[in-house]
Each structure stands twice: as structure tokens, then as C-alpha cells.
Amino acid sequence: MTVTLKPGVLDNLQHNMKMNDQEFSEFIGVSRSQLWRAKLPAVDKRFSLGKDFIAKVLAAFPNRTFEDIFFLDKVSHACDREISA
């Protein structure tokens, strides 16, 4: 299981706040390079989002839920198969 950013969510939040990358990364509490890597399309990911990054994003936007910003990739649905069987 991997936590992945929903495409465009951080870009939209940043745009709505009228901040450049440096300002937005400081607002969240991460480095500009962390922000840049996190915003890479999922197919270009060479790393996974760390717990600290996820926690800082959620803390910066307390009115947003985990599901508003992130999703779980490669989740096993073994329970679903057992229930439907």
C-alpha cells in the first residue's frame, strides 16, 4: 500500500492561496524540493510520501480530510473478495 497525492490537489490549494512554490512549501513546513517531488505525476514517482510530509500537509489544511488530498494506491482488497464469494 502506498499513499499518493490526488492529482492537482496541492497545485489547486497553492493556486487558491496565490503562493509560489517557496511560499507554499514554507506554509506547509516542507522543503521546496519535497514539494516538487510530491507533485510529480504518479508514474514518475521514485519515492513514496513520508509520514512527516503527509502529517504536515494535513496539519496545514485542517479543514481537509486525508481523502480530500491523498489516496491509497495498491491496496489489497482481499476482504472484499471474501465477502462477495
Structure write-up:
The chain is mainly alpha-helical. It contains 6 helices and 2 strands; from the N terminus they run E-H-H-H-H-H-E-H. Strands 1-2 form a two-stranded antiparallel ribbon. Helix 2 (21-28) crosses helix 3 (32-38). The longest helix has 10 residues, at 51-60. The chain is globular, with a radius of gyration of 15 Å.
Q: What is this entry, summarized?
A:
The chain is mostly helical.
What does the secondary structure layout of this molecule look like, with pairings?
Layout lengths: L1 E4 L3 H8 L4 H8 L3 H7 L12 H10 L5 H4 E4 L4 H7 L1
Antiparallel strand pairs: 1-2
Helix pairs in contact: 2-3
Name the strands of the widest sheet in spatial order.
Answer: 1-2
Q: How would you state the average pLDDT, rounded?
A: 84
Q: Largest sheet at a glance? A: 2 strands, antiparallel
Number of strands: 2
Question: Segments where pLDDT lies below 50 for 5+ residues?
Answer: none
Count of helical stretches: 6
Shape descriptor reads: globular
What is the string of SSEs from the N terminus onward? EHHHHHEH
Radius of gyration: 15 Å
DSSP helix fraction: 40-55%
